[in-house]
Amino acid sequence: MANALAKKDRMKLPRQHMPEVAPEVRAHNFEEVNLGFDPEAAEIESLRCLACAKPVCTSSCPVGVDVKEFLARILEKDYLGAAAVIRRDNALPAITGRVCPQEDQCEGDCLIGKKGEPVAIGHLERFVADYERKTGQIGIPENAPATGKKVAIVGSGPAGLSAAGDLVQQGHQVRVFEALHELGGVLVYGIPEFRLPKEIVRQEVDVLRQRGVEFETNVIVGKTVTVDELLGEEGYDAVFVASGAGLPQFLGVPGENLNGVYSANEFLTRVNLMRAYRFPEYDEPVYDCRGKDVVVVGGGNTAMDAVRTAQRLGARNAFLVYRRSEEEMPARLEEVKHAKEEGIAFRMLTNPVELIGDERGWLTGVRCVRMELGEPGADGRRRPVPVEGSEFVIDASLVIIAVGTSANPLVQATTPDLKTNKWNYIEADPETLRTSKEGVFAGGDIVTGGATVILAMGAGRKAARGIHEYLTNGEW
């Protein structure tokens, strides 16, 4: 059905608010914060779409979701049809509807957003994906006839899962190898339950399983089996390396070896995969946060996840320390808003210079220096400069470092003819994602460095196209 409202009337409709759990409640549990649209809110929000002749929202989406068409299906109350439209291009809609930074992608280019607030495309994607999931009527795309070709995918994060969905649909036999005991990669070990429930990830993986994708956990490619063995005796025709950028970076300041210092990767993995968020049902596999002061260093989404997690684990004070101003934080605006509502203490223009400990080797505080923004650096951002004589100490029993990650090194270390750059990321053709080794493709964070879920999924789709072309014509 066409949108019945005139364009000027659509532009007057306010953006619908996503219901949320109250901050004073959610700050003390791991239940999902956002509650989702009901059908009425979804239909009103869909009415706001201007149905552009050339929808830039779709061209701004790394996986190319047909936004205009799925919103039209919502207006027809055909929610399952809307979900099927999304699944043509997006293997994980219930996930991206929750964690994709739409404000920087589809919503960022929404035409109505030029004069007001953009259409809440992410909230609508979540609505139809959740509707589909709750009915159990998943719109599974039909697979092409079997090609007899086998593809191995290294890593079950967003890049690997996205590639698996496209490749199995093209008729190839696909097996995903995951190093950990649970599937989903960063989706399960890195993103907290209150932002992305583990059950959502499991159900999306189950859909891929129903589509024919095979999964094997506890396989560390580079140790359990090498890439050469996959292409040799294991009989795979192509390998897609999507192992991520899971090697944590640290500050390089004195005291980082003290007890009570974590990388954000380790902290979130212990909470998410080892069930610390379900204490006391599970023994808490992290240093006890209850009644203690916790400092998280960083300004991205991972830092936000870590500090909000520490708060929920019972921290007396949870501080976010960032060396630039709030305006320059790379974290999503929604995450910043939620953190502030939950009582997180922001310490902007502040940089740790030393971690202080007691005689037993336990952390007691963070020595910091105040910063001011100087001239722009090579990346165009104003560089933070220390303010002389401004040192001070934040008392803390736990510090979590969330300043980025680098390439997971295992595959590169055991595949000598795989070309890497000076940072040990795998070099891959930007269009086909072919590497220097015939039959091997690579994409996602292992190529680009840490990025968003949806960009990794876009790389997975691109890799699937490159792999399909290679398997079809045999040319390298």
Characterize this entry briefly.
This protein has helices spanning 7-10, 23-26, 39-47, 56-59, 67-75, 79-87, 93-99, 121-135, 158-169, 186-189, 198-210, 227-231, 264-273, 301-312, 333-341, 410-413, 445-448, 453-473, and strands at 150-154, 173-177, 214-216, 238-241, 247-248, 261-263, 293-297, 317-321, 345-347, 350-357, 363-376, 382-386, 392-395, 398-401, 405-406, 440-442. By secondary structure, it is an alpha/beta fold.
Give the helix/strand class.
alpha/beta
* Number of DSSP E strands: 16
For the record, what is the CATH homologous superfamily label of the largest domain? FAD/NAD(P)-binding domain
So, CATH architecture of the largest domain?
A: 3-Layer(bba) Sandwich
Summed up, the domain count is: 3
Mean pLDDT, all residues: 92
CATH topology of the largest domain: FAD/NAD(P)-binding domain
Radius of gyration: 23 Å
Large-scale geometry? globular
Low-pLDDT stretches are none
Oligomer: single chain
CA distance, first residue to last residue = 46 Å
Give the helix level as a range of percent. Answer: 25-40%
Major beta sheet summary = 5 strands, parallel
Strand and helix map with partners:
Layout: H1 7-10, H2 23-26, H3 39-47, H4 56-59, H5 67-75, H6 79-87, H7 93-99, H8 121-135, E1 150-154, H9 158-169, E2 173-177, H10 186-189, H11 198-210, E3 214-216, H12 227-231, E4 238-241, E5 247-248, E6 261-263, H13 264-273, E7 293-297, H14 301-312, E8 317-321, H15 333-341, E9 345-347, E10 350-357, E11 363-376, E12 382-386, E13 392-395, E14 398-401, E15 405-406, H16 410-413, E16 440-442, H17 445-448, H18 453-473
Parallel strand pairs: 1-2, 1-4, 2-3, 4-16, 6-14, 7-8, 7-14, 8-9
Antiparallel strand pairs: 5-15, 10-11, 11-12, 11-13
Helix pairs in contact: 3-5, 3-8, 5-6, 5-8, 6-8, 7-8, 9-18, 13-14
